[in-house]
Amino acid sequence: MDHDTSEKATLRRTLAAHCQQMQEREAQLRLAFEAAQIRPWDLDVRTRTMTWPENLGPGFKLLPNASSSTYDAFLALVHPEDRDYVTHTVARILKEGASYEIEYRLIQPNGNIGWRLTKGQVVRDAIGQAVRLVGIDMDITTRKQAEQALEQAHAELQ
Fold first, then answer.
1. Residue 24: which residues within 8 A CB-CB, separation 6 or more?
2. Average pLDDT for residues 20-28, to the nearest whole number?
3. What does pTM read for this prediction?
4. Of the four listed, 3, 60, 126, 147, which is most buried by Cβ atoms within 10 Å?
5. Which pLDDT does position 60 carry in this prediction?
6. From CA 58, how far away is CA 103, in angstroms rounded?
7. What pLDDT, on a 0 to 100 scale, did the predictor assign at position 119?
8. CA 91, CA 94: separation in Å to the nearest integer?
9. How many CA atoms lie within 13 A of 106 on its CB side?
10. Which of these, 112, 103, 111, lies nearest to 139 by C-alpha position?
11. Which residue has the higher pLDDT, 8 or 133?
12. Between 3.30.450.20, 1.10.3720.10, 3.10.180.10, 3.40.430.10, what CATH number should domain 38-157 receive?
């Protein structure tokens, strides 16, 4: 009986230590996401539902006060001139199954237009059907503004 109790106590301590390590890793990952302005997301291809971690705060959500939305709601936020590009790229990726990286404009909740860099990959089921897209979204508005200012300055010098 003592051996069984001792073994359970050891397992409890080991489990507690692993839980503590997981919490520390999650905090580190959250800090890295915030510092790099990276937003992880997940798209269920069958239901067209997009989700993202709730614990990343409101700045990391496509829609205020939500931890999920639909792919169509996301597309409605994509700048109209970029919508076909995003739609066709995602369709191609789902068909070909490659990882991808795209840049596009997104209409922000305040009405401003920002730039996004999205990197993702397809997750397939056992029979090869695309079931999910997973990826990250980065706000690259500042970089794009700097590029545009540099291009404008270069054009003025010529």
1. none
2. 83
3. 0.73
4. 60
5. 45
6. 22
7. 94
8. 5
9. 21
10. 103
11. 133
12. 3.30.450.20
